[in-house]
């Protein structure tokens, strides 16, 4: 057996268990030993039944006096045993484990651990963990696995209990531990545990101090590798072959004129970011920049200015957005801004391919650049699209600038694929996800970062209220009144599953019907969800923009980007299912005009914890603060998307551990400054290669 041995081949693990393991992403022995416990049960308190207090976690040693299965009316099985440790007999109860009576017999000596409870006035332990002892009532400390110590608890899946995983780890770990090589050079490892020791202790610690030390070391490795990967990519990017510098000064006048022609004055922050990007374009190296800016901070227009500059330099532009709705919207914005300059903007989504390009526009283009256009007549200067842009069918020449909006919605591979559509393009990505700077530097350490940290003037904070169910009717009345005054409303239906499945859509339809028939029969409502055909989506959105409908009922697809200034109220159903930062992004859809605007959060669960989490949105309008709060409340991270996944999954470290982030970043910088190729750090390089295949280039 070695680290890469497939778990299937290990005695006691057949195909069916193998499948369950694969479900946890456990395929090899190495995966298994890197499957870390997420908490520990402290069963180190070895005591006796007489002195055990209700609610206490204890370990007892004693003898089974009797054991039997009881079948309840609901076809459940209870296994009940009387257990005596010589001080006072107590009851042990297990649920649905009828096979236990084959394993535990009257007269067996056991050590059991669990939480003490009182049942019908008798002391008992529900679902205790147990292990057998020899006849002397003794277990060598080293034999203890499930009881009498700090017992690791693992992420489980149906049919794989912590107890089973624990036993397997205990079985395989000693056989492969010597194979584990510590990739850290000793000066970086410094006072931290050796890797072997850390792995042993994370599974089988003797104390919480051990756990802490092991976590420190393993967490360090995790973040350190991310830092190395991103910093190294950044270095390599800087070494890319030089490309032609774009002309910015030559077109100074045109650029200024274009900016002057915008319907508003740019904010200082927008100007600053445009300057940063201009610098990139003139460097003679491909740009690789992330623009981060709150919802509504005006990223699109920044992208438009940059696209214009690229166009002046004779480059073609691809602009990718995560949803069709958003792609349509960008296309229409860019058209409005750039058409007067004779620039053709086309759309490319699953259902629409350039069919908006009018012949006149091609004519204008032809006039402007006689020679270059001939071969690519059917191609617009700027192609806005969805994932469809990645299709093989779309062959693009001369692409020199790629813009990715809402980049967090795309996977690494997708971004890589888009980039490969051009030889050495300038790459501009944008996100509204507020990420604390240190975290951004880690996750996106390979990118240059620009922040639009200012909203256009005149934006009023969106008044936000968590609305209890008994106030729901009042909220509807308020909405009715506002609609009569000419305002428009979004109603967001609950996110039932992570992605927009049929179930989510069904729920949205049901809510739409309810609102239309029962609550607002006199108003016009539209329904928007991801499963509509693109024509329908466009229609629904246009009707809302044109005020033909007053209320837009929608799944959270409007989260990204939709821009309707007259909408002033946003209702979010099932608000607890979203992360705070996500809710903040949603409410950014309103409050875009001069009028006062509102967000009503309707929680589906009204316990105090949920409500107080949501209340943060009543008090805070700072997306970054809310993101940090999400990080802190990260326990239920997956659904809230706070793991910032899509890029790196953290098993043990946390993006909220700023000091570890700093420390690993410094260490990575230090080692790369000594040896940029890591040739002298072979083990580290191997580790990095294994880790980083999906990472670079982003
Ligand atoms: P986001 O950064 O969320 O993508 P958008 O680009 O959609 O934001 O811009 C939000 C709204 O703000 C749009 O209606 C846009 O026209 C407007 N806007 C952008 N910049 C300014 C500005 N400097 N002053 C006033 N309004 C602006
Ligand atoms: Mg946007």
Automatic annotation (TrEMBL):
Entry's Gene Ontology BP terms: DNA recombination; DNA repair
Record-linked SMART domains: DEXDc (SM00487), HELICc (SM00490)
Domain Helicase ATP-binding: 280-452
Top-level class of the enzyme under EC nomenclature: isomerase
CDD domains on file: RecG_wedge_OBF
InterPro entries in the record: ATP-dep_DNA_helicase_RecG, DEAD/DEAH_box_helicase_dom, Helicase_ATP-bd, Helicase_C-like, NA-bd_OB-fold, P-loop_NTPase, RecG/Mfd, RecG_dom3_C
Keyword DNA-binding: yes
Signal peptide coordinates: none
Keywords assigned: ATP-binding, DNA damage, DNA recombination, DNA repair, DNA-binding, Helicase, Hydrolase, Isomerase, Nucleotide-binding
EC nos: 5.6.2.4
Helicase C-terminal domain ranges (all copies): 485-637
This protein's record includes keyword DNA repair: yes
Catalyzed chemical reaction(s): ATP + H2O = ADP + phosphate + H(+); Couples ATP hydrolysis with the unwinding of duplex DNA by translocating in the 3'-5' direction
Single Gene Ontology MF annotation: 3'-5' DNA helicase activity
Similarity comment: family membership: Belongs to the helicase family. RecG subfamily.
Function noted in UniProt: Plays a critical role in recombination and DNA repair. Helps process Holliday junction intermediates to mature products by catalyzing branch migration. Has replication fork regression activity, unwinds stalled or blocked replication forks to make a HJ that can be resolved. Has a DNA unwinding activity characteristic of a DNA helicase with 3'-5' polarity.
Name of this protein: ATP-dependent DNA helicase RecG
Gene source species: Candidatus Daviesbacteria bacterium GW2011_GWA1_36_8
